[in-house]
Amino acid sequence: MIDVDNEAIISLVRRASAHALVYFRVGGHEVDNKVDGGFDPVTAADREIETLLRHELALLVRPLPVIGEEQGTTGDPSVGPAWIIDPIDGTRAFISGQPQWGTLLGLLHDGLPVGGWMHLPVLKETYFAFAGAAGVESPTTARLRTSKCTELADATMASTHPSMFVGGLKDRFDRLESAVRLSRFGGDCHNYGLLASGDIDLVVESKMRSYDILPLVPIIQAAGGVVTDGDGDPPLHGGTIIAAATPELHTAAIDHLTPAG
C-alpha cells in the first residue's frame, strides 16, 4: 500500500470539485456530446477537474497509473496502486442546474478498490473511506452507517434514471420496484452517499462504468453496506450495480433481478 495522507486527499478532492462551481448555473457554457446516436455530455469543468487531479496527485504522492473518464487510462492500473477518477459524476445534473453531482476519486491496488473519496460541492458534503478512516462531513449529518433494513417491503430504493434498464432487465427492475416501499429517480453519486448515511436502503443501477462505482465501494463497505454487480460479484467493471444496506436486502434484490430459470 502506498503512503497517502487522507486529509490531503480530502482537501484536494474538495478543491478540484469546487472548481466546477465557476461553470455551475451560469448559463451559456459549452456542452459537448461524446457519442453518436445518443447524448453523453462533457463540459470544460469535467476536463479541467480531471487534469487538475492528475497533476496534483502526481505531486502529492508520485506518478501512478490513472483511469480517468475524460482522459482514459495511463499506465497499467491492474498491478500495484492506481487512481480512478470521475471528475463530475452527474454531468447531466450539472448542466441542468441540479445540485446532486460530485467528484469521485478512488485508489485501487492490483485493480481492487481500497480507498474512496466523494465531494459534492453544492451540497457541501464529503464522504471518504481509506485505511480504517471513514466518515461523512456534511451540514446535515455525520452518520456513516447504513440502515438495518432487511425487507424489500420496508425499503427505499434509488436509481438515477429508468432508461438505464432495457429488455428483460427492465422487466425485472419493474418487478423489484413494485416490491419496495418507495422508489426515487435522480441523485447520481449522491444516492450512494445517502445509502452510506442510512437515509435510503437500496441503490440499483445499470450501464455503469468502473469509474462510476469503484471510488464508492470502500465508502459503502465502511458504512456496513454490500455492493456487487448484477451477478453478485465485485463490481470491478461496472455494468449492473446493486448496493444495499444489509446482506439480506442485497440477496432479496439480486433474487428479483436474476432471470428465471
Low-confidence stretches: none
Q: How far apart are the first and last residues' alpha carbons, in Å?
A: 43 Å
Q: How helix-rich are the residues, as a percent range?
A: 25-40%
Please tell me the total number of domains: 2
By secondary-structure content and strand pairing, the structural class works out as alpha+beta
Identify the CATH architecture of the largest domain.
2-Layer Sandwich
Tell me the fraction of residues in β-strands, as a range: 25-35%
Spatial order of the strands in the main sheet?
A: 4-3-5-6-7-8-9
And the CATH topology of the largest domain?
Fructose-1,6-Bisphosphatase, Chain A, domain 1
Write down the CATH class of the largest domain. Alpha Beta
Q: State the fourth-level CATH superfamily of the largest domain.
A: Fructose-1,6-Bisphosphatase, subunit A, domain 1
Number of strands: 14
What do these coordinates show?
It contains 8 helices and 14 strands. The protein is α+β, with helices and mostly antiparallel strands and 261 residues long. The strands form 3 sheets. Strands 4-3-5-6-7-8-9 form a 7-stranded mixed β-sheet. A 5-stranded mixed β-sheet has the order 11-10-12-14-13, sandwiched between helices. Strands 1-2 form a two-stranded antiparallel sheet. Strand 7 and strand 8 form a beta hairpin. Helix 1 runs antiparallel to helix 2. It is globular, with a radius of gyration of 18 Å. The N and C termini lie far apart (43 Å).
